[in-house]
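User: what does the whole thing look like in 3D?
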Amino acid sequence: MTEPLSRTPSSKHGGTLLKMTGMTKSFPGVRALDDVSLEIRAGEVHALMGENGAGKSTLMKCLFGVYKPDGGQILLDGREVSFRSPKEALLGGVAMVHQELEQAGKMTVADNIWLGRFPRVKGFLPIVSDGEARRRSAELFASLGINISPTARVESLGVGERQLLEIAKAVSYGAKIIVFDEPTSSLTEKEAAILFSIIERLKADGCGIIYISHKMSEILKISDRVTVMRDGRHIATEERARLTTEKIIKLMVGRELTERYPRLDEPTGEVLLSVENLSAVGTRLKNATLSVRAGEILGIGGLDGSGRTELFECIFGLSKRASGHILLNGREMENRNPREAIKNGFALLTEERRVDGIFGILDLTDNTTVSSLRDYLRGPLLSSAKMREKTRSYIDALKIKTPSEGTKIRSLSGGNQQKVILSRWLLTKPRVLLLDEPTRGIDVGAKYDIYLLMKELAAAGCAILMISSEMSELIGASHRVAVMSAGRIAGEIKSSEATQEGIMTLAAKYL
Amino acid sequence: MGEGTTKNDGFFTKIIDKWRGRVENFKGMSGKDRWKTAKGLLLDNAMIIIIFLAIIVIAILRPRFISAASIINIISLTAARLPIALGIGGAIVLTGTDISAGRAVGLTACIAALLLQSQGYMGKMFPSLAPLPPFLALLIVMAVGALIGLVNGFFVARFKLHPFIVTLSTQLILFGTVLLYLQIGNNGGQTLSGLDSRYIDFVTAPLFRISGIAVPRYVLFSVIITAIIWVIWNKTVFGKNMFAVGSNEAAANVSGVNVFLTIIGVFVLAGITYGITGFIEGARIASSASYTGQNYESDAIAACVIGGVSFVGGTGKVGGVVIGVLLLQIIFVGLNFLSVDQNMLYIIKGLIILLACAVDMRKYLKKR
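Assistant: Here's the predicted 3D structure for the full assembly of 879 residues, as structure tokens:
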């Protein structure tokens, strides 16, 4: 297992390498996987497609032992396996090339490849051999056509190089099944070409590749078969030759777009928010300019890392502004920190609920009232009764499913947590709502509730900006879409005229 | 009064309902699950169970342990140690700690003693300095404590340093300061004694007597401080912000909480409680020296953890801290009754902290 490049898949080309059947997994309030099956053959690239929240990553996490499936069977080379951790999966021949890179930045490239299984001096002394590690790394890179120095520090590499390093590492484990999760999202065209040639080589060696991507052209170019998932269910598995972009989208979305979103009224208000030439210190955000009218919902599209979140953080005062203006009703807003932004009528629903959204250990009342505490003062002291009453009224209004207002928020499902955070912001009486992926990881019913709420808020005169990576949501739940590319606004499209291709073209404009 | 009773009735029925539900649940389980649940319950409450067993054993071996004198002694000791524990509790709610607390108590005790040495005492540090009114001296040591807390809080909040490293540094600085301080004037490194009787009375005069045994006044101080801290933690914007920052600092910042001021506020409040503890200890022990307050922080941290103030952050109750301090003092007094070696006490304290933290962590780990 420690020898590099010792790939000996026992199955012949075309034989079944990995078979997952009846995979089922539930979380509180959500059925994330419902009887999903997936079969990977030796020597094939199998694309796994579906919208965010369709269950792709949950399925993969079950394979890698991050989640324990409620039901189902995983056969690898005909033997039943049940990995308890990604490490165990790796040793068992199943590797994942992650979207978010988990590398030890301060260490060298060679260190990162051989971490946990460093070559020893003479094989038995407990002393590691740097020279041997470097030699093997160089060999590995040469065989894959990658041009990276084994002695370079990982933090000095570009994102694309780091991605290739990660791929080389997976190969070095002699993995039979390699999962690529959005591998080209941070690669240049040249790096992507290297990736595809590596994939060809792995195919020839009889590996099975699971390829997760949203890029249609890529899927149609390199995959042999495509499996589409939706709402935690397996929808179809088809030969690539029998598919087109339209067909895949239809399978992914499953119904007409319009039914999933409330019909929006045309905004009639004046321009409420205008952002001019906004740049932020230490981020890629560069000269962003846009304006939103009262009553309007502006979708913000673009790839991960295109500067969308950075735009929101700069508007909200979480990052330092390098240049530009923020005007609310024509009045200049400083927004030097979140407190000032909130006072000025801004609200930010963050992308990572658990990281900077919820107070997991606190109850619903504390989570709801934290941004508007001064409203519940009676003299110098807070009135708990008032706070609970307010929280209860929002639990009712937003149909939050919870035993009581004293329940700890972490025991609620994602959709209900999101509604609690929305209540928190509504209580600050915002005029501009910045919603960063407001429906990510939320079940379909709660999604619709949130779209309805957005519609009502817009109707009440708010300006809403919504970042979304889900194409259909971006188009269906907004009046207009602004697309970002490499930190800049690449263009705007009216939602009624927007297409996935049009948005993707803009997203790639400055890449 | 009538309203109070109904409120209490609701409270008790709630608890009874909760337990009834648990018992029903338990009945419905299979043998294996029952054992697992019972084991979990035992482990989660291990500290309390062990301490109660210890109390029973000690009471049987030494019946005098539960005499009025002994109980009032335990209550007095608890009162003396409560303020510092409540101060450190706030730092722990922020996922931090404060190991400078004991030395801060030492310094403020020495300052209080200096300000309140009686006129004409032979070894008086500054013979010309007339003793101040005790209340004024109390305000001064509270201000000194607040200043220490301000320094701690500033470095934690401004430079994002871990409170452990900040308070480790201030601990050393404070100790050095006390040692140098005791050298000045006529003192020459001696312990500070010969205190003004007004000071001793102010702190230790009998509040009332129970079967002839006096309850000292500082018990009342402690009750007042506990009540004030309870209000601050539960009924003020600052208190709510403290729990928000402790639970999730990033989310607190996004939600408009002034994280910087909240952290500083928590450490300043803690510093004030050290000043109060120093003031009480100065009079209670009546001879302050460089070793005054030594290791008080470890007792206080242990009390907090036993009382459910978790290093996970964002969780803790004033009532829990009171129970924690009380249980710890019961154990110490009990061990004294059993004539356990003083040196042995350190080992026992260490084990208690370790066990309490492990039991506490178990509650949060299993919820993943």
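In plain terms: Residues 358-429 of chain A form one domain. Chain A touches chain B through 30 residues (CB under 8 Å).
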